[in-house]
Each structure stands twice: as C-alpha cells, then as structure tokens.
Amino acid sequence: MSFENLGLSAELLRAIADQGYTEATPVQQQAIPVILEGRDILAGAQTGTGKTAGFTLPLLQILSQHAQGKGQRPVRALVLTPTRELAAQVEQSVKTYGKHLPLNSTVIFGGVKINPQIAQLRKGVDILVATPGRLLDHLGQKTLNLSHVEILVLDEADRMLDMGFIHDIRKVLAHLPEERQNLMFSATYSNEIKRLTSTMLNNPAMVEVARRNVAAESVEQLVHPVDKKRKPALLSYLIGSKNWKQVLVFTRTKHGANRLAKHLEKDGLSAAPIHGNKSQGARTRALAGFKKGEIRVLVATDIAARGLDIVQLPHVVNYELPNVSEDYVHRIGRTGRAGLEGQAISLVCVDELKLLKDIERLLKRDIPKEVIEDFEPDPDIKPEPIQNGRNRPSGGGRRQQRGRPSGGHKRPRAGANKGNNGGNNWRSTGTR
Questions:
Q1: I need a labelling partner for 376 at 20 to 30 A (CA). Which of 185, 206, 234, 334 fits?
Q2: In a 10 Å sphere around its CB, with 0-12 CB exposed, 13-18 middle and 19+ buried, how is residue 258 labelled?
Q3: 214 in a domain, yes or no?
Q4: Cβ within 8 Å of residue 20, ≥6 positions away
Q5: Nearest-CA neighbor of 85 among 297, 281, 327, 251?
Q6: pLDDT for 410
Q7: pLDDT by residue (tens digit) across 16-70?
Q8: DSSP label at 339?
Q9: pLDDT tens track for 369-391
C-alpha cells in the first residue's frame, strides 16, 4: 500500500519521498490510520518491520494540526525507549520525517552531561524522546513539565520491563495528564506487558504483524557446532574466509565482548566492543565506525539486541547463545530487516545444547547444523552448567545501572541450572 493512501499530509509525504520510500510496511499500514483516529494502540511487531515510522509519522501529523506558536513550547509528545541508542535513533526519525513541519524535538538520556539537556528543554520542545532514568532525573530537578503531554509512546515496552524499568515507568505515568493517547509497541506479550496494558491503555486497537517470538523469515539461520575454546578461532576463520565486511557479534557479558574484540584485532580484523560499561561517546563512535565500514566487527552484549538500526546488515553471529530464548529472536532481528535477506550464525558448544533446544522449541523448528572442517567438536567433552536467566544490560540510565530486578523476577540462585545440560553432547544430536 502506498503512503499516499494512509491519510498523511503533503509535508510528511514529501519527507517520506525524500528518503526514497513509496510503499508502507504492514505495521505502518495497520497502525498509522488507527493512530490518526486518536485511538490507543497495542502493536506487536518485531524489529525491522518499520514500526518507528509507524508511530512517528502519525504522531507528527496529529501535533502539526495544532502547532504551537512562538514562545514557550510545552512537551506534547513523549517517547520512552529502553536504551540510549534507540532513543537517539527514534529522535533522528522524528527529525527526518518532521523536517517540513513547524515542530521541534530533542532526546535526553544518561551517560552525558545534563546541563545542555536542561538548556534545550528551556527553549521549548514539542516531542521529547527519553530513557526512563534520565527523564526522572529531570523531573526530580523540576527542569521538565509533562502536564501537557497529548501522546505517550512506549517503544520496546517488553524490553523496558525486562531491564527493570517498570517502577520508573509508573513514576513517569504519575506526571502525565490522564487524558492522553497511548501507543505501546512490544515484540512479545509477557504477563507484565498484559498487566501494564490493562492499567495504561484505554480500549486499545490491537495490531500484530508478526507472530509472537517468530524470527524473520528472511533470515537464514545456521548453527556451527564447535568446542568453547575454539570459538574465537572459528569466528576469525569465518569472517576472513567468507570475506564478511560487516558483522554484528553477540556475547553474553561485557568482559567477554572486550576479550573477543581484542582477539579479533590480533587476527587482523578491525573490531570494537559496545556495551553498558562503555561511555556514551565510545558507544556512539563504535557504532558510527561500524556503519561507515571503518570497523568490520561490532561485538555487543544484549544492550544492542534492539535499538541498533543498521541498514542492510548482512551478518549476525551468536558467539554465545543468549540465556533467554526470546533474546535470540531480538538478536537475529538486527539482520533481514524490512524484507532484506540476512544470515544469522550461531557458534554452539556442548554447554549450550540446552539453550539451543529451548530456542528451537520457541521457534517451533530445528535450526540447520553444519560442522566446519578442522573445527569439529570433541564428543567426549562434558558440558558445564550455564546459569539461566537474563543478564540485565546496563547503560539505559542510572537506575538501570543499580541492577534493580524487574517486578516478578527472582535472581537465579548460584548453580540453579546445574545439571540442566547433563547428558547432552554433540554425539547425541546426530550432527557428527
């Protein structure tokens, strides 16, 4: 369906055309008309489906119909995101599509100085994109007034709850007027999401363009069995022998990301880690270098599983499988975006066979397995336990860095998963 059939203004259609787009994605086709009607919405959409434009375009149109005059401008739309990178990218989308409209926007997040943000807010902002932690900092210092907000967007709502932001979200809601339009976007529908929906949304329209937790069909998925100690060498071999120019690699921990990036550099591959312990400036530089092709391999923790908008990213590698099956879907969703083809490779050792089975159960399919010559796993190696549960990334705000657990989740006991992988080995999987 053409954007011209969705009821958007000439100014927005011009901005869309400037970006070279003509056809709306399914989530845009369904969400935009409903939002323009003024209804609340709960949209289930995986990353890479065009959901950001799905809410920024109608949001801009609604606000532009009653644009404020000169002088002090109250915040009329608030977009909450879980990570700094996603916040920056959403605000860039607002600027891109709103460039022909008399509206302005800004983004606020932690990890950078607060005074320039205060100065920008004092000038007046129509659309504010923020992470919860820094937003509450501003509210606490009374440098921000949200009493005029007309539209609230929760982007990646499930991820925000996973990262422990439920209490912060409720605090933010207390500062908003009761009469407002609410737009919630979530890749999955957990019980926490359902509870939040019941208290926040008013008779919402339901939009779902991808089945829950289903990986994009345009992504080719493949598992390479390998011993844990040989993973670094296999990764370097794959990147070099296949001449991969742009690869996003996921590790479970920040220290693991640092170690792997150093190993790749020693092997002659330009690489950089990106995770919550890195300063915002370092993260921004690493991402910019990756997009420009100056950095060949970006090694990331799950902070990058959502929110990194990398055009035509061809390869994602799970150097280590995620502890939570749903995160596998979010990781590989970085490639195969908007209908483009992509490849997701997982390097799986015997310790991770239980995690692999959980992922395949979630996907309702077996992932093809291919043993690389000279990297065959030793069938006599015994699996070691991997602790279940999500390692919460830091970097979305100071409250997140304090490690607050999200409501309803208990921290796993040390050794809670001990023995879960027992009895599993590559010999029993039939891959050898």
A1: 334
A2: middle
A3: no
A4: none
A5: 281
A6: 37
A7: 999 888 889 888 999 999 999 999 999 987 666 788 999 999 999 999 998 665 6
A8: G
A9: 999 999 999 999 998 877 654 54
pLDDT attached to residue 95: 96
First to last CA, the chain: 48
Question: Measured between alpha carbons, how far is residue 118 from residues 90, 123, 395, 422 in Å?
Answer: 20, 9, 20, 55
Low-confidence ranges of the chain (pLDDT < 70): 46-48, 67-71, 210-218, 303-309, 311, 336-340, 387-432
What's the number of domains the chain is made of?
A: 2
Residue 329: strand, helix, or coil: helix
| 304: amino acid identity, one letter | A
Give the closest residue to 390 by CA, choosing from 400, 379, 380: 400
C-alpha to C-alpha distance for 292 and 85, rounded to whole angstroms: 17
Residue 271 burial (CB count, 10 A): 24
Report residue 10 as tokens: 């000439």
Q: Are residues 195 and 293 in the same domain?
A: no
Q: Which of 142, 174, 208 is the last residue of a domain?
A: 208
What counts of helices (H) and strands (E) characterise the chain?
16, 13
**Last residue of one domain, picked from the residues 177, 208, 239:** 208
What CA–CA distance (Å, rounded) separates 407 from 385? Answer: 26
Q: Is the dihedral of CA 55, 307, 247, 189 positive or negative?
A: negative
The boundaries of the domain holding residue 171 are 3-208
Q: What is the pLDDT of residue 121?
A: 94
332 and 411, same domain (yes or no)? yes
Neighbours of 294 (CB within 10 A): 12
- What's the pLDDT score for residue 17? 92
Indicate if 155 and 283 belong to the same structural domain.
Answer: no
User: Is the pTM above the cut of 0.70?
Assistant: no
Q: How many CB atoms lie within 10 A of CB 259?
A: 15
Q: To which residue do tokens 């220290």 refer?
A: 255
Burial of 57 (0-12, 13-18, 19+ CB in 10 A): buried
Give the model's pLDDT for residue 114: 95
Residue 360 burial class via C-beta count within 10 angstroms: exposed 0-12, middle 13-18, buried 19 and up: middle
In a domain, residue 95? The reply is yes
d(CA 32, CA 326) in angstroms, rounded, equals: 27
Sequence letter at residue 318: N
Give Cβ neighbours of residue 54 (< 8 Å, ≥ 6 apart): 25, 27, 28, 31, 32, 43, 45, 185
